[in-house]
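Re: Re: ligand-bound prediction request (bumping)

Still looking for help on this. To restate: I need the protein modeled with aspartic acid bound, output as structure tokens. Inputs repeated here so nobody has to scroll up.
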Amino acid sequence: MSLIVQKYGGTSVGTPERIINVAKRILETKEAGHQVVAVVSAMSGVTNRLIELADQVTGEGKPTEREMDVLLATGEQTTIALTAMALNSMGAEAVSLTGAQAGIETDGVHTKARISNISPEGVHEMLDEGKIVILAGFQGKTADGKITTLGRGGSDLTAIAMAAAIDADLCQIFTDVDGVYTCDPRVVPDAKKIDEISYDEMLEMASSGTKVMQSRSVEFAKKFGVRFEVRSSLNNNPGTLVREESMSMESVVIRGVSLEREQAKVTISGVNDLPGTAGKIFGAVAEANILVDMIVQNVSVKQTGKTDISFTVHRDDVEKAEAALTPVLAELGNGVTIRARDGIAKLSVVGIGMRSHSGVAAEMFEALSNAGINIEMISTSEIKITVTVSEEQIDEAAKVMHAAFGLAEA
Ligand code: ASP
Ligand code: MG
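Reply:
Sorry for the wait, this slipped through. Here it is.
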């Protein structure tokens, strides 16, 4: 007998029929002789609809975050009750638990709370009584009993954290895709499902556009050593196992290729190459709550001591970035200019094998150049190389990379 945590996302429980289908899967797992905790999300679209409702009743004003959490938590509460009902009508013994009832305690940061403690005794007791536990994702309570939510996509975190707390043998994240792919199959049709991936690779793929799961949950899993499998709730295919690194994992140089569209490049030219310049620029950008990704500073011109600094942001943040930086330009000296251009995309290759194999960057750049694709910016980490290219060429660039590293043969 194993102790298994399963998580079903919003699409998997999006209709009554799908909830019944999920209930069947849960029951099959139970009948195979395992103890099961199933974490469920709100039915797809529900969380967004609740946010809209809050907007509608508050007009110009904003709802308090406390009430927002009370509201949002109802999405998952609906699903746990329906899933438990479906199971019970199949003759199983299931019990639904809200985050609070399951002993999930968080800090008091409403709408993006962090889990501070889980007291799993109650869950263990129910499991030992032979019950199936249906747990609401995305929510908890503060020490003084206020309802909190964990941030969008937070049901993944509930599953991983509960798996850690009850020391589960297996954590399965069921979703609407078969797992993590070597590249987006809509772009590269011969992309392959990855059997095993390390936490770090999964995190780097997520930060460069491959959104299968909330990154915070993967970080949590890494910290507490929770192995988990991402797989489809619509079929019985094995998924992708996300786990700590092993020696054999390093033999594959590149695990996958990620792409991210709708990027823009902001360039500030003619700034003095002096201490404090970058601090002022990125301080202003951070103040405006804009996420900056790649940053490139040119070598300064010897005679003038001036340099250029470029960075990428999401296309939708360009105006905000320009507005935030305009007041700073004067402080940066005479003749400083700002320029922004969208229509660029990021292409990344990710793999822990890069640590022990040289020449990956050269291979990447050569393959792109052979395809006539111009690279604008480059940045690297220990296990990732990212370039920006024109958005029009991103699909082609992804195909070229996928082929260059032989990922279809994996
Ligand atoms: N229902 C929440 C959301 O839509 C949490 C989740 O689905 O993981 O963000
Ligand atoms: Mg969701």
